[in-house]
Amino acid sequence: MGDDNNMIEENIRFISTDTLSVDFFKGERRIAIFADKDYSELKLINGEFGSKVFYPDQPITNTNASLIVGFGDEEALSRAKEIAYSEDTDLILIPTIPTISAFLPYHVDRNLKIKHPSKLHTLLIVKEIINNQPREKLAFGLGALSCMLINLADEATEGFLSGNEINSQKLLEKIKNILKNIDKFAYPYPTLGFDLAEILYELSSSIKSDCCNPLTAAYLFSLYKNNKESYNNFILAISFAIFAVYNGYQPEKELILPPNRSEVYVRLKALLPSIKPTPSLFSEDFLLARFVLSDRYEEIISALSDFPKLAQCYLRLNGNSGYYLRSLLAINELIEILPLAAEIDSHNTILKHVYSSGYFK
Prior knowledge:
alpha/beta
């Protein structure tokens, strides 16, 4: 997409800090800003303006704002989307790192309900901000990328089942091309954040449905473990786990034992009262879909085969990420969470097919 500061495509703009100051806040009297801890950077860009700052965990009844701004990481942007959608307010998102909430057009709330906005939000990619982040933070963009690739893989699966083979083939080729060129993100360079943002926006425009298995699973797992700080790590690790399952991942011996899913389900039910297993999981139509996919399975696996390279890039960028990947891929809770994500999801995803085969039993 180049370096054109005036570039506009749908609801996204790649801009400089000068453009941000002049074009987007001038004249607004009631601005509610949802920010992470580093709000000072936004103040420096725009100077003092009439606004009230909120933080993601802060309880809110009504902001009474004419404009809501999300500035920061996944948690800040997600909270801004949630409030803007509920208040039907104009929304501007300014990610400091490449993140899921910036690029997906919908919001998945804590009850696992997908919320669509009544208005298009404006996404601003400010080069001086998104490129000037520590490499550990930029590594979270690879978690967002893994989630997007899972979404595309599931959408390709849906397409094969519904007879839309041409579009599914295009999606698999897109996945292949991105994964084969992922090595360039192994080490930080001056435009890493911006380049990741471009790819994520391109992928988000390819996603037509609300398939969001890894995002749903990450919400479940973050609630189950009650550890919000590692949410971005959850996205990468759970996406990686789903890819591993797609590729015939064999868990360690002690994880093959039947998990105590009923206990996990009770704990999650208390947190998320709206959880309901999909009643048609083992229906005749679903079994027929398994048959339709059988001759496509190798092709899908081939498209996903380079995914471990993405995880290795993530490991090299983020020195702490090895702990999260190892811990999340080597504990019983993950084996228990993935079937729940399969049950809750309303689409015929590959994860559901792996689950129905008895792999998790």
